[in-house]
């Protein structure tokens, strides 16, 4: 448990640092993009330096995209938190997910009815599920299956805590792939911003860091269950916004790997 606290503090410190850098960097980029546009206009179409200006603009734009990812991670407050039906929200982007991961991956989405809502920003949730699905896709170059499950879960007050969360009602989102899996040292660092095992230009190292940011801001928990050769399941637990005593749980706590 101490291990998890240390990991959390490290990630929080990294978030503050990254947010500060991203903010200043964004201002500098706005100046670069604005000035490049002015020069392009002054030179006029067909000027031999136009391709150079375009390269500057393209590079600055790529950097701006990266910093906006960073600012998502660093943001302390959720943008527009509202009560969301996560199952419905994920079904709403099912087509997008299917197209993004491609034909050779067997994709299924299992969501039960009558699940409790959670308080979350809808686009944060969509971006997170999309990023996790893209990661899964990258881990399955020879095909495989991606399963997204959404279920409810109650952590009873008297039981030995199986998760670092207070007792109560939760929504469990599992994004499971049958890809390469991760060795323990990758699992240990995967949630940190900028940690990537992908070649330069292909990974930002911010997908899981952003998921961590979104989930912890919502007072939830994210855990990586992964093994080389077997695949990866990202387990996300979010506190239920309402408790209705009547509906039964549809999930059991998943085995969790230490993430710190
Ligand atoms: P990025 O995908 O840009 O590298 P992430 O923060 O999303 O950044 O992931 C960090 C690292 O964690 C990846 O580079 C990869 O090594 C590992 N990883 C993440 N998701 C998976 C997955 N589903 N299967 C295997 N490895 C993964």
Automatic annotation (TrEMBL):
Cellular compartment(s): Cell membrane
Superkingdom in the source lineage: Bacteria
Domain Histidine kinase: 20-242
Protein name: histidine kinase
Residues of the full protein shown: 306 to 565 of 684
